[in-house]
Amino acid sequence: MSDDYEHPRAKHEASEGFDRTDPASGSIWGFTIGSVIILIVVIFALQQYFVKVWNDAVYEKVLAAPSQELQNTLNQNNYDLTHYSYEDKGKGVVRIPLERAEELVLQDAAQGKTFYPAKDTKPKTDAELAAEAKQAAAKSAPPANANKE
């Protein structure tokens, strides 16, 4: 190695050596223990905050008593489903209790008076579907002699 440097290099004696004193281990241990304690406190505080927020949300959404408006609406709906009343007196539209309406529908169904297709229907076979498709094609196709002029 060459001793040529761009800046002057100070010469040290071998007796100087390096810093032979021990590091301040007490301070290092104090800092480490303090950091661990702060970390544990922060983790515990975050966990308690999460538990509080969770419990508040559960109480608000599940355990809290329903509002009075909701209770009034439910009571009105229950009354409407169990009592007779006029919907429109001028047109003669009435409301009947749900149980009575179910009885009337079952009676109509037993007598075959239902106004919707509630009877069992048999699925069409492939031959029936092909015949219907052929008829539809024949109706939509132009006559054979229509193009000749």
Plain-language structure description:
The chain has 149 residues and is mostly helical. Among the domains are: 31-67; 74-114, no CATH class. It is 56% helix and 5% strand. It is built from four helices and two strands, in the order ααββαα. Strands 1-2 form a two-stranded antiparallel ribbon. The chain is elongated and about 120 Å long. The mean pLDDT is 86.
How would you sum up this structure in a few lines?
With 149 residues, this protein is mainly alpha-helical.
SSE topology:
Blueprint: H1 25-63, H2 68-82, E1 85-88, E2 93-95, H3 98-111, H4 126-140
Antiparallel strand pairs: 1-2
* Shape estimate: elongated
Decide which structural class fits the backbone. mainly alpha
Q: What are the low-pLDDT stretches, counting only 5+ consecutive residues below 50?
A: none
Individual helix count: 4
Helicity, as a percent range: 55-70%
Strand and helix order: HHEEHH
Spatial strand order of the main sheet? 1-2
Q: Tell me the strand percentage band.
A: under 5%
Determine the mean pLDDT.
Answer: 86
Q: How far do the termini sit from each other?
A: 111 Å
Instruction: Report the strand count.
Output: 2
Biggest sheet, in brief? Answer: 2 strands, antiparallel
Mind telling me the C-alpha Rg?
46 Å
List keywords for this structure.
149 residues, mainly alpha, two-stranded antiparallel sheet, 4 helices, elongated
